[in-house]
Specification:
A hairpin with a 4-residue loop joins strand 2 and strand 3. It is globular, with a radius of gyration of 17 Å. About 30% of the residues lie in helices and about 20% in strands. It has one domain. The protein is α+β, with helices and mostly antiparallel strands and about 190 residues long.
């Protein structure tokens, strides 16, 4: 970064560090102790929708890579599209298999990156619930290399439990690199895996 960049307020984009996903299992222990949330066994990788043979090949490679793991029911990852036009590769595991789920998310992201789809990657998330049924996702922003909590309130209205999100941020500050700019805590309404 040069002097002109500093004067004009430009900054270098943060490098994505997919290895930060491996901090999720220890963060889950903290989250359970602090707020009673446990993993659901569901997670997903979100990316801008990609068409064509190259992406189909990547999807097949991801399926083949994760098919080697026989400790699951059904397909290793499922491709879905949300109401906003984004694509999601969704993984389902048993709730006590968070480490395997994180490995799935890391493998999907890595394979997308290796095949040239890194610029389309948006975020990854792992789902959590408490005993009363409240939902919480820990969302990893690919282009920022940071996490944030997202807690949708039940019902048809798209509302968030901001108090719970701030409580989770405080509890996880030592476990995860938390996104400091609250304006980047984007809602992921209807995200599969949540």
């Amino acid at each position: 970064m040069g002097l002109l960049d500093i004067l004009l307020g430009r900054s270098k984009p943060v490098e994505a560090d997919l290895d930060r996903l491996f901090a999720l299992p220890s963060a889950a222990v903290t989250l359970e102790a602090a707020a009673g949330f446990t993993p659901t066994g569901q997670g997903a990788v979100c990316f801008a929708t990609v068409e064509g043979a190259a992406f189909e090949q990547t999807h097949r490679e991801v399926q083949a890579l994760l098919d080697a793991d026989t400790d699951r029911d059904g397909p290793p990852v499922r491709l879905t599209q949300d109401d906003y036009g984004y694509s999601w590769l969704v993984s389902h595991r048993a709730p006590d298999q968070l480490v395997s789920l994180v490995n799935d998310l890391h493998a999907v992201n890595s394979q997308m990156e290796v095949n040239g789809f890194g610029p389309q990657l948006l975020c990854s998330l792992a789902g959590f619930r408490d005993r009363s049924g409240r939902r919480l996702a820990l969302v990893y922003l690919y282009k920022r290399g940071t996490f944030y909590p997202f807690a949708p309130l039940p019902g048809e209205a798209q509302r968030r439990d901001n108090a719970l999100e701030l409580q989770a941020r405080a509890a996880l500050a030592d476990d995860l690199t938390i996104e400091q700019d609250l304006g980047r805590w984007f809602p992921v309404w209807g995200a599969p895996g949540l």
